[in-house]
## 1
Amino acid sequence: MSSPYEQKKHQSKGDVVWHHSTVTHQDRVLQKGQTPVVLWFTGLSGSGKSTIANAVESQLMQQGKYSYLLDGDNVRHGLNKDLGFSDTDRVENIRRIGEVAKLFVDSGSIVLTAFISPFISDREQVRKILEPDPFLEVFVDTPLDICESRDPKGLYKKARAGEIKQFTGIDSEYQAPVNPEIHIKTAEYSIEECAIQVVNKLEGLGYLKGAQ
Ligand SMILES: Nc1ncnc2c1ncn2[C@@H]1O[C@H](COP(=O)(O)OP(=O)(O)OP(=O)(O)O)[C@@H](O)[C@H]1O
Ligand SMILES: [Mg+2]
């Protein structure tokens, strides 16, 4: 079985010819005993995306599952350090993250991403990049006043003081998911409980057992 990643590359580009792997996607999936998926965490700054994604990874690790977390700031330190926050760069940022997530899915991993990703169109774009790989939108739903009172990085303070412009939730819009696959309310549940909700959903959808 060729992976969705390989299938896309059948459309060869000029002299760039796809080299098929000896170890197949199916081999990797069977080896890991799980079904790869992308969990796309979205929510305001301070809503808890990184915190919950980390807690989910810990629980998956305890179950012997393979995962990898792509976190917003970390990606901007390396792979995307040449990108700023213009519209063009924002789209390129998401495109690259989508392509990296696709590689990890090809490897058989459960991929978690933690980016504010405030616009519905951006999230739809990445869902399309990943097709036909499974993509689950995880809405980390935390009211703005709670995010602002947590302010773990001091960013709201700076945004209110006008030191950061176009800050999501303050002077830039956050477009909440309309129909997210997973909806987490961090004001009502502990970090641990929120992570359990995500893991239970993965379990319920069959991602924690071998290929479906
Ligand atoms: N139930 C909860 N779930 C998640 N985080 C919680 C919860 N209760 C309190 N917190 C706290 O809220 C903060 C969330 O910060 P975190 O860095 O995870 O947000 P983020 O969504 O990744 O923000 P950013 O987009 O700026 O990276 C942490 O300090 C965390 O300890
Ligand atoms: Mg974060």
## 2
Amino acid sequence: MIFHNPAGAPELACEQCGCRWFDRINDTCYECGTKVSAESVAEFNLAVERFRARESARGDAVPGAAADRAVR
Ligand SMILES: [Zn+2]
């Protein structure tokens, strides 16, 4: 199950209880212990890639402004 936060970023959520907290080491839900399916993870990773692509496309208007400031 994939949710999108107000910023449009995807968030992986438990198929069983809908909670968004996972044990990243064991890939299980913190709430109910349901194992996260490989399909869900793959779907989520795709959603993240699409989101990042969209973000960087939008960021091109001000190329690397924030990053530049952080370096100097
Ligand atoms: Zn759960």
